[in-house]
């Protein structure tokens, strides 16, 4: 579904006076507002192909209708999101759910929607119909060398698909682990996994990165083979410069200090990127910023400080992607909300009086440091985020326009009520 630019323009015209009033006030409050707006324009957050449909739990799945039935329709949906917010300019594919039949046609369709291909994602947490072996007891860690080889070969196949599409990174998430004490030899599992990852790493093109995700629990509950940032860091340190740790905000034990993890990984040049979501209990995969907006801001505060210290390009040097599961929301509305929350947190972090904060830290002025951070967090930067969209030809209020245009109704009319966007 292509969104006509005149509909966005008409939507913006109706809101322009109100937006201008809010923007003028915000400009008077934030000294570096123009620089922030430009950084917001440049910043892009990839949309994963699997997040375009309804998720579910182990108890059930309640489809919302109109989900994309093919890779082509997934690209169209991300293109629609990008037209609405001009901040979702990339799609991350999951193999084998999204294997292109014709690379040139798929790339042409993505270009039509001003999209590029972000990291490609492998799948060894699920048995495929044509697989000779099962991953029931793990993939890259498996005690069976033939099963490990099958998993390695799959990842290399994913790299080949990514090369054809113009991607430059591979994301590896392992469901490997154990459910019961004694089931697994931890050291052997680590060594098997490292050996497998080394084979995959050797297949990477020179300009590619390998992102190794971690997760504290699930689907295995006694142990996971890449359980936390330290274990991921241990692997990627041994693999080489092209290997980085990927942080998923929902993949931590309760109350983990994610902002400190981010700071240290940046310091060690081993932070690869993010999967944004929110959680209360575990890997809930809720809308980014829905539960813990202050934590999201604090994470971005460390990101901005760390990237600036290293002279990094905010928009290009790390991987930014959403990873959410939409169980009761319209997936496209949820993704629009997540992108908005991420952009707000980023803008707030950019508005921090960095010079004053450094001075407060040097003087051990704890109260002043807290005041500086909370002042930035409590400042309403939504007008800056909206202005970045306006200057890019996107909608001032993306969710509002999405609803005004009855997009979900249109998609249901085109695709039907009972469709599925993922292989789950």
From TrEMBL:
GO molecular function terms noted in the UniProt entry: isomerase activity; metal ion binding
Positions in coiled-coil regions: none
Alphabetic keyword roster: Isomerase, Manganese, Metal-binding
Domain Xylose isomerase-like TIM barrel, first and last residues per copy: 100-285
A family per Pfam: AP_endonuc_2
Gene3D superfamilies according to UniProt: Divalent-metal-dependent TIM barrel enzymes
Stored SUPFAM superfamilies: Xylose isomerase-like
Keyword Metal-binding: yes
UniProt entry tagged with the keyword Metal-binding: yes
Matching PANTHER family: L-RHAMNOSE ISOMERASE
Full protein name: Sugar isomerase
Organism: Flavobacterium agrisoli
């Amino acid at each position: 579904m292509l969104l006509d630019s005149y509909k966005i323009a008409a939507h913006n015209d109706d809101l322009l006076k109100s937006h201008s009033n809010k923007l003028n006030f915000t400009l008077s409050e934030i000294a570096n507002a123009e620089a922030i707006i430009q950084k917001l324009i440049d910043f892009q957050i990839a949309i994963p192909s699997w997040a375009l449909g309804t998720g579910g739990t182990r108890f059930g799945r309640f489809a919302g209708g109109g989900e994309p039935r093919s890779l082509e329709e997934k690209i169209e949906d991300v293109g629609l999101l990008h037209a609405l917010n001009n901040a979702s300019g990339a799609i991350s594919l999951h193999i084998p759910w999204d294997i292109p039949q014709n690379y040139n046609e798929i790339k042409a369709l993505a270009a039509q929607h001003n999209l590029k291909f972000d990291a490609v994602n492998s799948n060894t947490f699920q048995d495929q119909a044509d697989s000779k072996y099962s991953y029931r007891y793990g993939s890259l860690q498996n005690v069976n060398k033939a099963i490990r080889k099958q998993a390695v070969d799959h990842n290399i196949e994913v790299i080949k698909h990514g090369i054809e599409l113009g991607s430059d990174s591979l994301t590896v998430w392992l469901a490997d682990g154990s459910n019961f004490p004694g089931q697994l030899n931890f050291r052997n599992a680590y060594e098997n996994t490292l050996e497998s990852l080394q084979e995959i790493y050797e297949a990477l093109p020179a300009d590619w990165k390998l992102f190794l995700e971690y997760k504290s629990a699930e689907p295995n509950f006694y142990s996971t083979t890449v359980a936390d940032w330290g274990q991921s860091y241990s692997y990627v340190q041994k693999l080489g410069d092209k290997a980085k740790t990927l942080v998923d905000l929902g993949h931590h034990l309760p109350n983990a200090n994610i902002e400190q993890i981010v700071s240290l990984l940046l310091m060690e040049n081993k932070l690869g990127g993010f999967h944004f979501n929110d959680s209360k209990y575990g890997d809930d995969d809720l809308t980014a910023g829905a539960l813990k907006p202050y934590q999201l801001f604090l994470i971005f505060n460390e990101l901005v400080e760390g990237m600036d210290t290293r002279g990094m390009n905010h928009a290009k040097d790390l991987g930014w992607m959403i990873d959410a599961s939409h169980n009761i929301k319209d997936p496209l509305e949820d993704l629009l909300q997540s992108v908005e929350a991420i952009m707000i947190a980023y803008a707030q972090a950019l508005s921090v009086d960095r010079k004053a904060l450094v001075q407060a830290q040097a003087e051990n002025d704890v109260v002043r440091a807290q005041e500086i951070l909370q002042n930035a967090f409590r400042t309403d930067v939504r007008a800056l985020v909206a202005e970045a969209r306006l200057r890019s030809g996107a909608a001032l209020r993306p969710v509002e326009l999405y609803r005004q245009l009855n997009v979900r109704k249109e998609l249901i009319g085109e695709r039907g009520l009972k469709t599925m966007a993922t292989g789950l």
